[in-house]
Design a protein that fits this description.
Strand content: 15-25%
Number of domains: 2
Number of strands: 16
CATH topology of the largest domain: Dihydrodipicolinate Reductase, domain 2
CATH class of the largest domain: Alpha Beta
Radius of gyration: 19 Å
Length: 354
């Protein structure tokens, strides 16, 4: 067994995981570098002079053994539809707290619906500790506080450049295959891509935006109880018609073989933004809530690029769970740390309009 540590980053050999490890080291932590690829895990561990453990997740016994002595594991290995459940199975046995940076609706639903299991096991389970979904989840909670009887919630984000990492691209391919999801009267419903659009007032100016299958249609419901939720992202002018005409491609991605091929191409062709490219990027967010009487409150937010925010927020969440600040059970970021948690992160500012 390698050198022990109370903190592990699984998938630390990937783009997001490696930068999360760098952020942890900057703060004086020594996380275990973990993953299933022996060569790549060893490379990152040697680069950062950190302990390492190599294990796959299919064998719960082996995974549980690898979590020996680990109090908190941060899962950065997506798509999380494949990694969250087996790693959580091991965490239940090893009594290790679990965090991840997923934005996948199905993963959020699975975790929050099994809240009683995590409580009984005595572990904290906090998915979505990155850009998915910390900024939007905290925005949803702040809007709910401003309008307690809200019944409708819209959240939206706009990236200046939006270059993807390989893991994010693979997750998006899987998400496209599942379709576009909204919440209606408390129930998740599917709609076609491009069916819902609007011009929304981001901090930098209005932009045409389209509904996408984003994690907040799950997490914001658990955070606020608001029964009707839509999440939008800004798109370039003229792209809406292209999205509406891409139905055949989205249907093709429902076939497993097509997903596998697309994800392999993404893993080979995409490298993720470097430090300079990330620094040139930024995020703008908008949200509004309304009640049955038609009263509205809205909010805007500016933030760093999604990756840099993910590195900082996920390690901050891990530090607080390590410190014992969160009780066992399933949590959203705003429920665990308060609606204003996002404002404690670097380069974030918010403005509420009532």
């Amino acid at each position: 067994m390698s050198e022990t540590s109370s903190f592990m980053i699984y998938g630390a050999n990937g783009y997001t995981g490696r930068y999360c490890a760098l952020e942890a080291v900057r703060r004086g932590l020594r996380p275990i570098i973990a993953g299933r690829d022996t060569e790549r895990v060893a490379h990152v561990a040697a680069e950062l002079n950190l302990p390492q453990r190599v294990f796959a997740l299919e064998d719960t016994v082996s995974a549980t053994r690898a979590l020996e002595g680990v109090r908190v594991v941060l899962n950065c290995a997506g798509p999380f539809s494949r990694t969250a459940k087996p790693l959580l199975d091991a965490c239940v046995v090893s009594k290790s707290h679990y965090l991840d940076v997923t934005g996948e609706i199905a993963v959020f639903e699975y975790i929050h619906q099994l809240n009683a299991i995590w409580r009984e096991a005595g572990i904290v389970v906090l998915p979505g500790a990155g850009f998915d979904v910390v900024p939007t989840d905290c925005m949803a909670a702040m809007l709910k506080e401003a309008l307690p009887d809200a019944t409708r919630l819209r959240l939206a984000f706009k990236n200046k450049r939006g270059r993807l990492s390989p893991g994010t691209a693979k997750t998006m391919i899987e998400g496209f295959a599942q379709g576009c999801t909204v919440r209606r009267n408390g129930t998740l419903e599917q709609t076609s891509f491009g069916a819902l659009s609007d011009t929304l007032p981001y901090p930098g100016g209005p932009s045409l935006s389209v509904v996408i299958p984003w994690g907040d249609v799950s997490t914001a419901y658990y955070s606020t109880g608001i029964p009707n939720i839509e999440v939008y992202t800004a798109i370039p002018p003229g792209q809406l018609d292209q999205i509406k005409s891409s139905g055949a491609i989205f249907k093709l991605l429902r076939l497993k073989w097509a997903q596998i091929i697309a994800q392999k191409i993404a893993g080979w062709a995409i490298t993720g933004p470097d430090d300079e490219q990330r620094e040139m990027d930024s995020s703008e967010l908008y949200g509004d809530a309304a009640n049955e009487e038609g009263y509205h409150v809205s909010m805007t937010m500016t933030a760093p690029n999604g990756y840099s925010l993910t590195f900082e927020s996920s390690i901050t969440c891990a530090e607080r769970v390590l410190a014992g600040e969160v009780a066992p059970g399933a949590w959203t970021p705003s429920l665990a740390f308060g609606s204003h948690f996002i404002t404690e992160l670097s380069g974030v500012s918010c403005s509420l309009k009532e």
